[in-house]
Amino acid sequence: MTTSPRIAAAIGAAALLALLGTGCQRPVDPAAGTASSPASAAQEAGSTEPLDACALLPAGQVEELIGPHDGGTPSSAPNSNGGGCVWENPDNYYSVSIDCGQTGTAVNGLPEWEPALGPERPLPDEMREFGANSGSVQFVADTRDCLTQVVRSSSGGDLDAAVVLARQIRDDLG
């Protein structure tokens, strides 16, 4: 059985997010971060509640990006205050993904780049592309190592749309 390019791109994107998500869930000293929002204040106070990443984007905004979608599927590691969400259009496999690590996973900015991932591709606002043509952007929100991805074609992701979402999420969490 042959996998279509759209399905292959969706599977690759999910694997990339899963890989990044497991790396973002490191134990953290809650005193390392600075609270500037009610959500981060609760997490700094020692809360282990996961971040509701699906609440970070309104359904209408996701629909503007990928069309009708499944409403978002949350993800988080056990005992973590990080979280993620993936919205998928079941008709064309377009998707929007968010993954934010625990508070304190990026206290000093983005983690050091892993050369095995290929050349680092810096973006504006202290962000970087995470995977060529994947539409993935790695960024820091408050003190969290985060990733967002927008896939709107069978040939790859939409980097510009992912940067817009990264800025929005950074501002909402920061």
Low-confidence stretches: 1-47
What's the helix-strand series? HHHEEEEEEEEH
Number of E-state strands: 8
Mean of residue pLDDT values? 78
**Largest sheet features:** 8 strands, antiparallel
How far is it from the N-terminal to the C-terminal residue, by CA?
A: 46 Å
Your description of this structure?
The structure is a single chain. The chain has 174 residues and is an alpha+beta fold. The protein has one domain. It is built from four helices and eight strands. It has helices at residues 5-23, 38-44, 59-66, 159-173; strands at residues 73-75, 83-88, 95-100, 121-123, 127-129, 136-141, 144-153, 156-157. Strands 1, 2, 3, 4, 5, 6, 7 and 8 form an eight-stranded antiparallel sheet that branches. A hairpin with a 6-residue loop joins strand 2 (83-88) and strand 3 (95-100). The protein is globular and about 40 Å long. The N and C termini lie far apart (46 Å).
Task: List the keywords.
174 residues, alpha+beta, 8-stranded antiparallel sheet, 8 strands, DUF3558
